[in-house]
Design goal:
Strand content: 15-25%
Largest sheet: 3 strands, antiparallel
Shape: globular
Structural class: alpha+beta
Radius of gyration: 11 Å
Number of helices: 3
Helix content: 25-40%
Distance between the termini: 17 Å
Length: 75
Amino acid sequence: MRLVVDLNRCQGYAQCAFLAPDVFAMHGEESLVYNPQAEQEHRERVARAVAACPVQAITADGPDGFAGGASDAAR
């Protein structure tokens, strides 16, 4: 699964880091670091993290058709 975070849009709310700590982490109080090639085993947690982002800064896609931002992940 490929992840892209718009770091200009990200406000550091850290909902993604709380919901998918194996993929997202906060470095300091405002800087997000993440694995852009998340494993499929993290798909469910990543989908929740995408849906929980208050500014919809995360997009994800993968071979199984999961694609898009928060509205797509909430399916």
